[in-house]
C-alpha cells in the first residue's frame, strides 16, 4: 500500500483553486461580523482597550475556522455519496491517506482564509506588537484549533445522510465564540453565563491569542487552550477513524 496523501491533497486543492469563491465565501461572514462589531457595536462595548479591532480579531479568526471546516464535511459527504470514496478504497493506497488528504486540505484552505481576514483587519486599524515567535505561537494555536475542528467535521461528513446534515454541526461552533471573551470581557456577563463562558474552550484560546498579539500575559491560558485543542483532536480522530472503518470496511 502506498501513501498517496500528497496526490489526494493536490486533487482537493485543485478543486478549491478552480473555485476560489469557497475561500471568499468562508471569509465573508466573519469579515461582516468584524465590521458590524467594530463600527456599529464597538462604541458601546467597554473592553479596556484603545483599539477594539485588536480585542475583536482573535474571536473572529476562530469563527473563520469554524465556518471553513464545514466544507470538509461537505467534501467528504460528496466523495462518499458519489462513490468516489469507495473507488479509492479499492486502489493500492493507504486508507488513512484518504482522510488525511481532507484534513490537510482544510488546514491549508483555512490558513488562506485566515490570512484574508487578517489583511482586512489591518485595513480596519488592527496593529500588533507581537514578534516573530509570538506570531508563530498564534499560528500554532490556530493550526491545532483547525485540526481539532476538522477531525470533528470528518465524523458528520461520513455519517450524514444529507448535505444539510453534513454541514449543520458547524453552526453551534460558529456561535460558540459569542458566549466567550471574544467580544466582551466575561466579567460583564450574568453569573451563569459567565461560568459557562469562562470554562469553555474558546475563551482560553481567545485569551491566549489576544495576549500573544498584544504583548499581554499569556499565563495558564495557553496551556488550557492547547489542552482543549489536543484533547478534542485526539478524541475526534479516534471516533472518525472508527466511523471510517465501519462505513467502508
TrEMBL record:
PROSITE patterns: ABC_TM2. It is found in: Cell membrane; Membrane. The chain crosses the membrane at residues 21-41, 53-77, 98-123, 135-154, 166-184, 222-240. InterPro entries: ABC2_TM, ABC2_TM_bact-type, ABC_2_transport, Nod_factor_ABC_transporter. GO terms for molecular function: ABC-type transporter activity. It comes from the Bacteria. Signal peptide: none annotated. One of its GO terms (cellular component) is ATP-binding cassette (ABC) transporter complex. Keywords: Cell membrane, Membrane, Transmembrane, Transmembrane helix, Transport. It is a multi-pass membrane protein. Residues 21-247 form the ABC transmembrane type-2 domain. Its main location: membrane. Coiled coil: none annotated. Belongs to the ABC-2 integral membrane protein family. This is Transport permease protein.
Amino acid at each position: 500500500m502506498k501513501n498517496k496523501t500528497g496526490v489526494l491533497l493536490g486533487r482537493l486543492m485543485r478543486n478549491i483553486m478552480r473555485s476560489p469563491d469557497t475561500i471568499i465565501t468562508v471569509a465573508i461572514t466573519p469579515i461582516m461580523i468584524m465590521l458590524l462589531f467594530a463600527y456599529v457595536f464597538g462604541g458601546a462595548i467597554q473592553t479596556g482597550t484603545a483599539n477594539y479591532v485588536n480585542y475583536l480579531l482573535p474571536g473572529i479568526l476562530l469563527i473563520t475556522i469554524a465556518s471553513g471546516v464545514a466544507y470538509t464535511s461537505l467534501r467528504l459527504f460528496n466523495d462518499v455519496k458519489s462513490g468516489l470514496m469507495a473507488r479509492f478504497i479499492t486502489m493500492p493506497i493507504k486508507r488513512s491517506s484518504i482522510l488525511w488528504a481532507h484534513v490537510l486540505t482544510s488546514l491549508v484552505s483555512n490558513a488562506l482564509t485566515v490570512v484574508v481576514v487578517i489583511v482586512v483587519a489591518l485595513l480596519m486599524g488592527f496593529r500588533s506588537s507581537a514578534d516573530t515567535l509570538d506570531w508563530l505561537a498564534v499560528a500554532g494555536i490556530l493550526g491545532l484549533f483547525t485540526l481539532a475542528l476538522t477531525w470533528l467535521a470528518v465524523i458528520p461528513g461520513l455519517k450524514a445522510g444529507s448535505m444539510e446534515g453534513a454541514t449543520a454541526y458547524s453552526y453551534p461552533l460558529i456561535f460558540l465564540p459569542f458566549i466567550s471573551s471574544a467580544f466582551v470581557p466575561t466579567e460583564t456577563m450574568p453569573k451563569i453565563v459567565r461560568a459557562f463562558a469562562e470554562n469553555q474552550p474558546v475563551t482560553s484560546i481567545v485569551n491566549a491569542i489576544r495576549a500573544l498579539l498584544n504583548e499581554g500575559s499569556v499565563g495558564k491560558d495557553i496551556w488550557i487552550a492547547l489542552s482543549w485543542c489536543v484533547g478534542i483532536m485526539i478524541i475526534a480522530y479516534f471516533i472518525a477513524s472508527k466511523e471510517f472503518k465501519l462505513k467502508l470496511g
